[in-house]
Structure formats: C-alpha cells, structure tokens
Amino acid sequence: MDSTIKEPEISEKKIRKLVEEIVRREPGYSKYQRVDLLERIVKVEEAIKFLQKEIKQLREDMDKRFESMEKRFESMEKAMSRMFQFMTPGFSVIVVLISLYKFLR
Length: 105
Fold this sequence. Notes:
By secondary structure, this protein is mostly helical. It has two helices and no strands.
C-alpha cells in the first residue's frame, strides 16, 4: 500500500526566519530570550522528526498486517472454491439418486 498522506516540510531556515521576524517586531526580547526561543524550536523540531519516524514505522507495520490479511483471505478463497467444486457434483449425484428412488418406487 502506498500512502498518499505526506508530512509537512519543516525547514530550519523557515523557522529561523519566522523567529527573527517575530523578534524584530517585538523589541522587548532580550538576547537570552532569543536563545531560549531557538532552544525550544530545536526541541520541537526534534520531536516532529521523531513523530514523523514513528508515523512512518506505524504505516509500514500496518501495510505488513494488511498484506498478511490479504494472503489469508486469498487462501480461504481458494479453499472455499475447492470445497464448492467438490460439493456441486456430490449434490448432483444425491439429487439424481433421490429422483431415481422416487421414480422407481
């Protein structure tokens, strides 16, 4: 199964640009507050990367489960097909025997 959902692209440059823009607009930020903001951004980026890896792993696991279920259903379908192939002549023979029994009686 090919997943069509794509994770958003988050680049460090975009985030730094946004932070610098916010810091320029808000003159009350000190140098230490800027460093604190950048540290928080780094932590958020790491968390996002970790979650993206987890989501990818979950999708791969889900795909494997679907593939195994598909194989099971295919094998059950083959078994049912064989069963009906043997049942059809059996029922036909039984119907013919019952008809002959009633006819000859």
